[in-house]
Predict the structure.
Amino acid sequence: MSYVEIEIRAKTVDLAVEAAMQELGVESREQLAVEVVSEPERGFLGIGGKDAIVKVKRQDPRRQQRDRSRGRSDRQRSSESGRQEKSQTTRNSGSRSGRRPNGGSDRGKQSKGKPVSGQEKSRKDDRPTLSVEEQADQARQFLEGLVDAYGLEGSVETRIDDDVIVIDVNGEQTEALVGVRGSVRSALHELTRTVLQKYSQDTGRIRLDVAGYAERRRQALTIYADQLIDQLTAEGGEIMLEPMSSADRKVIHDAAAARGGVESYSEGEAPRRYVVLAAAADVAADDGGEEE
């Protein structure tokens, strides 16, 4: 009887084997002969990952039975060998110490009860305290290396704005570092902050933008908020927006404050925190006030 060999790709080796089991119609992984062609690669920030590749075929039932029998014999031999070694070790230990095997050792007790000094309890933080300018330079070097590692054409510029490190990653190819709704950009922001924390005790605030995404996002959200405010001004009531990041929520709050006639507030817990826009008259009525 011939056994068909198939090749499966999946995020992990286990998922690939499960898919092969379904395709071959087997219920146990022991019925399969699995050869891992390549392990999966996660990539960096969701970019450049690779699936696992495995070759799978059904095992010959006779060979499977022989393997199980051989495995049981090996386990029995290993168990017997382990018992013999343990017995021999116990006898040797008892003869060296001059005590019964279960007597223990005073040396081990003394080592276990050794007090820990205060210096070992609290290690001194040997990280230097970098200035904001030095931190900006460190962030620039890190991001330039990251852009180069991905083979992208782009530049990294930094400046200091009221003790805030403003970082701009520019270049058409750097759009790949934005992600869906800026998800990759947000990850880069956190990663850059983590790098600075590694080299400096006190780290400044960071504002990171990639390929001008933050400005485009701010303009789009402002237009969106203006449309909602027009609707509330004409119809009243309130509108609950989708969950947003703190930066996006600030844009909505700023737009509401600039227009007037509406109130804005945030509700929920991060990362599901969202903004509610309400007509000012409805807010006053809910608070028991009178409309002028």
